[in-house]
Specification:
heterodimer; A: 217 residues; mainly alpha; B: 8 helices; 76% helix
Chain lengths: 217, 219
């Protein structure tokens, strides 16, 4: 029987880069989508507002796992075969978009109302108001919760192994199937996740402190 | 069959929420009342649980513990993992509430000759709970959704049931649509129920400022 040694540990460590890649892709695509949704949520057009609100409510109220199952097994049943990596990143991007949309909507709303009024009185269009006045301020406010959410995303990538994509979690399971030394293996896997997530958590908390300090001046 | 899955999802979530909340309260008390060493241990535990995926925790309990002689079935492992996970998040949320209690309140309590335990219970913990109830509620909903992950250790809750039906019927799209809608209904009802419960338990604070709701933190 194979035992858990350096080659296996190296295999797991290498798979961690896939976890990071998946996180990055889901974050970028989900972020773009989430940004559009956040603006839609605050739009003056009722239909857009309703649509964005409904989308966010639904996605936040179902497990990510179900989104993943639907996009992998569900779509293949109706004839659309997505490769595991695409299904995984698409599902995670959908999940990310709903949560970031809410975080960013909150940030945009917390920009003081006077900023809108002042920029409107300078005859800026709504697009210009967003571009030059509101979004730069909202971006600063949204930084700590966005980094905090990144931690949630990294952890949630661990479920994509159900569609056969070899990420950090899947690599751990494969080694476990060969060696049956689950305790050591999942300690290592957990430690790698922790090594990715903990600095992000601290960064988020640090940013929050910095902002609170600068706001009280 | 789906109904059984629904019942199991509800039961799992209920047990995890109840036990997790008790554990979190104990840990918060330990953090506030015992010496700093207890605080460090609680903090380390909270950070450890919050920065590793739920799935890793579940596998550690289900596959890892038997290696050192502790064996349990999928259901027990799931309950334990969910409880431990929720307890860590709830401790962190309750901490925000406890921190929001003004120091003068505690001094006032002590001045009225209340014991340290009484002050903690009536002056700190109860108002703290009332303030963070919305944040706790969203964490409970997220935990219910995260219970879907327990199907990985062959627990026949809602998503586990879905996988079996799918294998038997090959109707994956229909199965997953139905199950997703059930999750949606479950999550929304749980949210409404918790809001109602919050208004029932803490009527006195509904008008006061509450600690802002933490953004979604899935397990």
């Amino acid at each position: 029987m194979q035992t858990f040694g350096w080659p296996e540990a190296y295999f797991i460590l290498r798979a961690a880069s896939w976890t990071i890649a998946l996180t990055a892709i889901a974050f970028v695509i989900g972020g773009l989508l989430g940004g559009v949704l956040a603006i839609m949520r605050l739009s003056r057009v009722k239909l857009l507002r309703r649509f964005a609100a409904g989308y966010i409510l639904v996605i936040q109220s179902i497990p990510v796992l179900m989104v993943l199952f639907m996009s992998y097994y569900g779509l293949s049943a109706v004839g659309i075969e997505l490769p595991p990596f695409l299904a995984a990143s698409a599902s995670l991007a959908i999940y990310v978009s709903a949560y970031l949309a809410e975080i960013w909507r909150g940030s945009i709303e917390s920009v003081p109302r006077q900023q809108w009024e002042a920029s409107a009185s300078l005859a800026l269009t709504r697009g210009q108001q967003y571009r030059y006045i509101i979004l730069p301020q909202a971006a600063r406010i949204s930084l700590p919760p966005t980094v905090g959410f990144l931690v949630q995303l990294v952890k949630n990538t661990s479920i994509v192994q159900v569609v056969g994509f070899v990420d950090l979690m899947r690599a751990g399971m494969l080694v476990n199937n060969a060696t049956y030394q689950a305790f050591q293996i999942f300690t290592l896997v957990g430690a790698i996740y922790f090594a990715i997530c903990f600095p992000l958590s601290r960064l988020s908390r640090h940013l929050e402190k910095v902002m609170n300090a600068s706001r009280s001046h | 069959m789906i109904l059984n899955g629904v019942m199991l999802t509800i039961a799992l979530s209920f047990v995890a929420i109840a036990l997790g909340l008790v554990l979190a309260t104990l840990m918060s008390a330990l953090r506030s009342l015992a010496g700093s060493w207890a605080g460090y241990i609680v903090d380390a535990y909270v950070e450890l649980m919050r920065n590793t995926p739920f799935l890793v925790q579940l596998f550690m309990i289900f596959f890892g513990l038997p290696q050192i002689g502790i064996r349990m079935d999928g259901l027990e492992a799931s309950m334990l993992a969910m409880t431990l996970n929720l307890a860590a998040y709830a401790t962190e949320i309750i901490r925000a509430g406890v921190d929001s209690i003004h120091k003068s309140q505690i001094e006032a309590g002590l001045a009225l000759a209340m014991s340290r335990r009484q002050v903690f219970q009536y002056v700190v913990l109860q108002p703290a709970f009332a303030r963070v109830w919305p944040a706790l509620s969203s964490q409970f909903v997220l935990m219910m959704l995260a219970s879907s992950i327990c199907s990985f250790v062959s627990v026949q809750e809602l998503s586990g049931t879905a996988a079996i039906i799918e294998q038997d019927t090959f109707r994956s799209f229909e199965t997953y649509i139905v199950v997703t809608v059930i999750y949606l209904v479950l999550a929304l009802s749980l949210k409404l129920f918790l809001n109602w419960l919050g208004r029932r338990i803490f009527p006195q604070v509904s008008g006061l400022a509450r600690v802002t709701e933490a953004h979604g933190e899935a397990a």
